[in-house]
Design a protein that fits this description.
Length: 307
């Protein structure tokens, strides 16, 4: 069984896509290939059933199928997204995932009024339902959830509920939040592992602010691995040189909604999955989009040769 996440977890936890066939069915053979692809690129761990994984478009049975397939396929630590409108459903999926060998679970605040007391009460209820033994990653992604969360609330929750050991940081702009949390830790607040998302778009600056790595789905996971390794090893300038080479295609992937189709098309072109299909309703690339993407991928390859 892989190690569980804790307050010092670091590295790159790649957010895994969920492969579908052209007609929208789960493609388990491609899922196997994708998990192997991520492992070959040197990631520290995986995060499944997240927003990029189109978890909201999967049935309850399909979620179980995906998590069991992934956990049986890899020895890497796996964080399972379990956010759900119902706490009973959330807890059932989370406890099943942990029983199958997951390293932890990821939970986002429930949609609703953006009040700190509501967020606090919700996470206390979640932690009560899960029990103290389940490590929790707090997913802070207000652009999607519609629920901004203050650093004070995050710090209060991780202090009061020790199983909240990790922050998936995707607030934007979010650099001041990282600094606030790290300064509070210097003053005695419990440490949080902080892994960042947003495609890695701000990764060099976030690493400079003291985060522990990345948790995002960029279709060149080896880039994230190298940037994090270099930066944590004290080679910040070299890390930014690598980042700069990937920036045009990374930025292209980050387009709202459309970016998921771009990311899956890159994974298909790199041989990781058989089809770039997203599950309906989802974006599709036109012939013009694909020509544009081929050019971006070729330019990225040429830039890396120079490095």
């Amino acid at each position: 069984m892989a190690d569980r996440i804790d307050r010092h977890t670091s590295g790159v936890y790649i957010i895994a896509a969920t492969p579908f066939t052209d007609d929208g069915a789960l493609d388990l053979a491609s899922l196997d290939r994708l998990i192997d692809f991520y492992a070959e690129k040197g990631v520290t761990g995986l995060t499944i059933l997240g927003i990029m994984g189109e978890a909201d478009k999967l049935t309850a049975e399909e979620r179980i199928t995906v998590l069991e397939r992934v956990l049986a396929r890899t020895s890497l630590p796996v964080i399972v997204g379990v956010s759900d409108a119902g706490i009973g459903n959330l807890a059932a999926l989370a406890l099943h995932a942990m029983d199958k060998g997951a390293a932890g679970v990821m939970v986002a605040p429930a949609r609703g009024p953006a009040r700190d007391d509501r967020v606090v009460n919700y996470f206390h209820a979640v932690c009560d339902a899960l029990g103290d033994d389940v490590p929790v990653c707090f997913q802070d992604f207000p652009q999607i959830t519609g629920v901004p969360v203050s650093p004070r609330t995050i710090l209060e929750l991780t202090r009061d509920r020790p199983q909240i050991v990790m922050l998936k940081h995707e607030d934007c702009p979010g650099l001041p939040k990282i600094t606030t949390i790290r300064k509070a830790e210097e003053a005695g607040s419990p440490r949080l592992s902080i892994l960042v998302g947003n495609g890695g778009l701000y990764l060099p600056q976030e690493l400079a602010r003291g985060v522990d790595g990345a948790m995002t789905g960029f279709a060149y996971p080896e880039a994230l691995v190298e940037i994090v390794r270099l930066h944590l090893g004290g080679e910040a300038d070299r890390a930014e040189d690598i980042f700069d080479a990937y920036l045009p295609i990374l930025r292209h992937e980050q387009q709202p909604v459309f970016g998921l189709a771009v990311r899956k098309a890159i994974l298909m072109k790199r041989g990781a999955i058989a089809s770039a299909a997203t599950r309906a309703p989802g974006p599709r690339l036109s012939a013009t989009d694909l020509v544009e993407l081929d050019r971006l991928m070729a330019r990225t390859t040429d830039k890396l040769k120079d490095l």
